[in-house]
Amino acid sequence: MTAGANRRRFLGAAAVTACGTIIGLATGAGWSRLGQPGTLLRSRCPLPPTFRSPLPIPPILRPSRVTADTDYYEITQHLAEVSILPGFITTAWTYAGSFPGPTLVSRAGRRTVVRHINRLPHPVVVHLHGGHTPHDSDGYPLDLIAPAAAMPGTAAMPGVTTIGYRDYVYPLRQPAATLWYHDHRMGFTGPGVWYGLAGFHLIHDEIEDALPLPRGHRDIPLMITDRAFTADGQLLYPLSDRALRTPGTTPAYRDGVLGDIILVNGAPWPVLPVDRARYRLRLLNASNARRYRLRLDPPPLGGGGLVQIGSDGGLLDHPITHDDLPIAPAERFDVVVDFHRYPPGARVQLTNTLGSDATARIMRFDIATGPAPTDDTRIPHTLAAPHTLDPAGARTTRTFAFQSYPGGWRINGCLYQPGTDIARPRLGDTEIWRFTTDFHHPIHTHLGQFRILTRDDRPPRPSDHGWKDTIDLGPAETAEIAVRFTDYPGRYLLHCHNLEHEDMGMMADFTTI
Ligand code: C2O
Ligand code: CU
Ligand code: CU
User: Fold this and answer.
1) Ligand 1 in contact with 501 (CB < 6 A)?
2) 129 CB less than 6 Å from ligand 1?
3) Ligand 1: which atom is nearest the Cα of residue 129?
4) For 22-35, what is each residue's pLDDT tens digit?
């Protein structure tokens, strides 16, 4: 079946219930304020032991060509046999053969062109999450890269399908930040990411270069995901249609798919040996639905073990000290941990206080014995320039209600209808967007980073500071953000980053004008 048929299914479902502004729909009905948005899918193989696998570091991708102003990369997407669980070989959907995919490292303002070649047996779409990207390279969910074996025409769709490969052009006029790239195919982002299509894309700039922060082998990206596996060690996902024609999960998993095995950089509950020195940890929650509350166990004497230096969109203006950090799907927290605060030989777990049993553990840091190395890094009081996005200048306020309906998840009463705009913000204008929820929804905007202003009319959480592209909202919560889209006119997306919600309708187009 073609993507066109998928769309007709969406539209068919949307036609059943009229799409419009919903007034008086009870929020939070039937939902409790539970920590976990989803249903646990249990692995059918024995759980691997904790703290045995070494932490893998995804390979850094070398450019295939470098010119005066552009770095060119090539990534072939293909099925590959990867080793995730000890004793098993797992077939994954991969970027260039690995899970996570290779890490791209770019300079701010330097054009990066990534050619994605699709050798998977189905269409894909690549989105650079957090990227300030022109529309035609943003990974609109119907801008498919069809496998080279030609697909039937999709001319009636509001997307541009290419055959075999596509060149994504990223100007990267944005500050140093931890971005990630992942599949964004309409209706199938959940399985796409679950089966392996996710990787880091880091941006560096001069402001960051000038700071005495940990770098090199003490600057470590950590992609946290939960997964479930079959009895023979294959990735298990509750597809509603094994042929991948109808989007979504089986009804039991519509709230979100939670795995029972925690992977960091593709290894179960791994271990990283560390020196008694400062490390920069770039935390990414790349799980489909699971939220975590991360904590060091034991905490260092005096607490404040996680010193946040960056958020989704880049460095904070000042560091913020946390004992624990809630992290929803797609969020990034850039933290510095000073292992010198622990005695030699200490073993420090990164734990998840929202988990139970094995999902309460993430990974372990094993601190070296022997004398501490010299460490001339510091966390300066001033990191980046203060974030200027003044809500006082906003002339437009828009409200978006994220709610569950029979048959799907909707924004303002609508299932995703590609080609229909929910908003048409003017480039350069500051706007206030108000989000309301009935359940956990990590809400994400493409193109622009935003600032969180309030939650339920109260000040935001300590972890809400800095530039954000994803906000972790709980059941029956209202938040206001200030957002300003700049530079690129075109069609972008507002959606829930619980990938099951996204695939089952909780997404909307907006067009910048
Ligand atoms: Cu990370 Cu539109 O998504
Ligand atoms: Cu995004
Ligand atoms: Cu959601």
Assistant:
1) no
2) yes
3) 1
4) 433 433 333 444 56
Q: Which residues of 38-77 are buried (b: 16+ CB within 10 A; e: fewer)?
A: bbebebebeebebeebebbebeebebeeeeeeebebbbbb
The residue ranges of DSSP E strands in 392-467, in sequence order, are 396-405, 408-411, 421-423, 430-437, 441-445, 450-455
Longest dimension (CA), the chain: 69
Tell me, using a 6 A CB cutoff, whether residue 495 lines ligand 1.
yes
List the residue whose alpha carbon is closest to atom 1 of ligand 1.
Answer: 129
Cα-to-chain-centroid distance, residue 119: 24
Condensed to tens digits (0 to 9), the pLDDT of residues 76-99 reads 999 999 999 999 999 999 999 999
Is 184 close to ligand 1, i.e. is its CB under 6 Å away?
A: yes
**Atom from ligand 1 closest to the CA of residue 446:** 2
Residue 236, C-beta contacts closer than 8 angstroms, at least 6 positions apart: 41, 43, 44, 227, 228, 229, 230
| Ligand 1 atom nearest residue 495's Cα | 2
DSSP SS3 for 59: coil
As given in the structure block, the two tokens for residue 103 are: 């890490």
Q: How far apart are CA 117 and CA 48, in angstroms?
A: 34
Binding site membership of 493 for ligand 1 (Cβ less than 6 Å): yes
* pLDDT tens for each residue of 151-172: 555 555 678 889 999 999 999 9
